[in-house]
Every structure is written in C-alpha cells, then in structure tokens.
Design goal:
The structure is a single chain. This protein has 240 residues and is an alpha/beta fold. The protein has a single domain, classed as Rossmann fold (3-Layer(aba) Sandwich), CATH 3.40.50.880. Helices cover 28% and strands 31% of the residues. The chain is built from six helices and twelve strands. The chain has helices at 19-30, 61-71, 74-84, 94-98, 197-209, 223-238; strands at 2-8, 35-41, 53-56, 88-92, 102-104, 111-112, 119-136, 139-153, 161-165, 175-176, 178-180, 183-186. Strand 5 (102-104) and strand 6 form a beta hairpin. Helix 1 packs across helix 5 (197-209). The N and C termini lie far apart (42 Å). The structure holds glutamine (GLN). The site of glutamine (GLN) has 12 residues, from helix 2 and strand 8. Glutamine (GLN) is lined by residues 15, 58-61, 64, 93-94, 146-149.
C-alpha cells in the first residue's frame, strides 16, 4: 500500500517547522508498512493527480505574494477538486490564509485566495504569538501561533475548534481554524502533528479512504506522542 503526500510550496512556506507535519504523516504510514511518497509542489509545478494528503505550511507575507499568484486559475481549481474528491489537506497559518477568499497583508495589495475555505483574513495591529490549546473533534490539540492575520469565518463554516488557550482565528470569537470536508486549516504551528497523533492519523486515514473508502488504520503505540502532548498542554495552560 502507498500514500502520496503533496507538499505545497515546501521551500517557500515552511516556517516554524511545519515540514514536521509532512514527516509525521509519512512516518506514521511507514510504521504501519505503508509506503510514503512525498512530492514537493512548488511555484510553476503542475498539481499531480494522485495526491492523497496535501500539506501547506506557513510563511511570511512576502512569500505569500508569489504563492498566491501561483495558486490562481487551474492549479487552485485542481486543488479544490482533489479535496472535493476526498483528498485530505492540512494548511497552517499563511497557507491557511491563502486557501480562503482573500488575505489583506499590512504593506501589500490584497492577495487573492482560492476559496477552499469560506473565510477572509486581514492583517491586524497586533501580532499573536504564543502557545495555543483548543478543544476539537480530535480532542484537545496543542500548538504555537505567530500571526498578525485576523481570520473571520463565513456563515456556517465549522471551526477546527474552540480556543482554550491563545488567540486563534482572530482573538475575538473564540474560534481557531476551519474545516471544509476533508480539509483542515488553522494557525497552529509546532509542528502541529507530532504532538497531536489523533489529527495526524485522521489526515492519513482520510486521504487513503479517497481510493479505498473501507480502509482503516491499525493503531500505533503513541506513548511518546501522548507524553509530548501532555507536556505541551501543561505548558500551554501555565504559560501563554
Ligand atoms: N504572514 C501571515 C501573518 O502574519 C502568516 C504568518 C505565518 O504563516 N506564521 O498572519
């Protein structure tokens, strides 16, 4: 069995170790005897057909300008079609922002998104930096945020979770992230997945179910991941 991972703009959108998300899903597949093939999809590259799980990391405003331009047109439409067909996707921060309708940075023209998520982001006056803890359908998730973007979800959009510690989408409405079918976006760097194995496995299993709807992942011994999660959760609860 094989899982094909599409790493969107890995060289340009990879701050705060977001590549760790790619490594985590690939390794959790390999531990189960599933071959994992990571395909980096850069600026100007076509979007391959056979991607099971997409990752899109964070990046500074200047990196987002070139990436936003590259995603417009056929490439963005193909990405939305792949997700609509069941491919899993995790987008973090700058990547998350560009999958909405628009991202309005401080010192640049508004950047067009592709509308995978029904949301809009505008740079705010304050930078949100610190540990984040949310309650979600995957249990409590822990991460780290560093963004000035304030994201507002469209009506009826399911947030990824409820902020327990930190600022989340906009520091006002108590939401963090967004869910659109098999796509999840959020502001949680870390990298997010090494310390949140339930979400990592959901992405892997969801992506593999695109080709085999009956597929179910075998369990792993997550002793270390669970311990790391507990330590990070405690740190988030005691220090902002
Ligand atoms: N440039 C965006 C912001 O500041 C995203 C930053 C990031 O990806 N950490 O909101």
């Amino acid at each position: 069995m094989r899982v094909t991972i599409g790493w969107l703009y890995g060289r340009k959108m990879n701050i705060y170790g977001d590549r760790g998300n790619v490594q985590t899903v690939a390794q959790r597949a390999r531990w189960r005897g599933i071959d994992a093939d990571v395909r980096e999809i850069g600026i100007g590259d076509p979007l391959p057909d056979e991607i099971d799980v997409f990752f899109f990391g964070g990046g500074q405003d200047q990196s987002q300008v070139a990436v936003a331009r590259d995603l417009q047109g056929e490439k963005g439409e193909r990405l939305k079609a792949a997700v609509a067909d069941g491919a899993a996707l995790l987008a973090i921060c700058g990547g998350y922002q560009l999958l909405g309708h628009e991202y309005r940075p401080h010192d640049a023209e508004p950047l067009p998104g592709i509308g995978l998520f029904d949301l809009v982001t505008e740079a705010g006056p304050e930078r949100f930096i610190g540990n984040v803890l949310i309650g979600s359908r995957w249990g409590e998730l822990v991460g780290f945020e560093n963004h000035s973007g304030l994201t507002h979800l469209g009506p009826g959009v399911e947030p990824m979770g409820k902020v327990l510690v930190g600022r989340g989408n906009n520091g006002q409405d108590g939401t963090e992230g967004a869910i659109a079918g098999t796509a999840v976006g959020c502001y949680m760097h870390g990298a997010l997945l090494p310390k949140n194995p339930t979400l990592a496995d959901w992405l892997l299993e969801t992506g593999l179910r695109r080709r085999d709807p009956s597929f179910t992942l075998s369990p792993l011994d997550d002793t270390f991941e669970t311990a790391a999660h507990a330590t990070a959760r405690e740190r988030a609860r005691t220090t902002r």
